From TrEMBL:
The keyword Transmembrane helix applies. InterPro entries: AIM19. Keywords: Membrane, Transmembrane, Transmembrane helix. This is Altered inheritance of mitochondria protein 19. The chain crosses the membrane at residues 63-84, 105-124. It comes from Aspergillus cristatus.
Amino acid sequence: MTDTNTPAEGTKQSLMQTARAWGENPFTPTLLATTIAAQHMRPFQAFPMLFPPVLLFTSYANLQGFTTDSAGISAAWSGLYLLLAGRRKQPFMKKWGARGIVRGVTMGLCFANLVGGGLAYTLGKREEEEDDE
């Protein structure tokens, strides 16, 4: 009976590798677009509803092979939404209702997309760069 575990299989990913994988994943901007739409659809707010189509486009671009560029766009728009959502004040007791929890999840996803997408964009390679090597 031989041991088939190699050292590479047993190692855990570092935090930086996990964040980069999060930024390259096409599902995370879609999830963020869903939570933003759920929060601002009723009552309809036009300005925040500009974010879901852009985030859905980044998921589409990611699936078409533009992982680095879509990670950068997703990170930029997530950071912008986080900045704008952070400016709104919310009373303490409303933070624990359904809307407050969705808002907290949305802002958490924005931060995760900002960090992960920023790392994926910064450390990623485009197809033109890979052809040169």
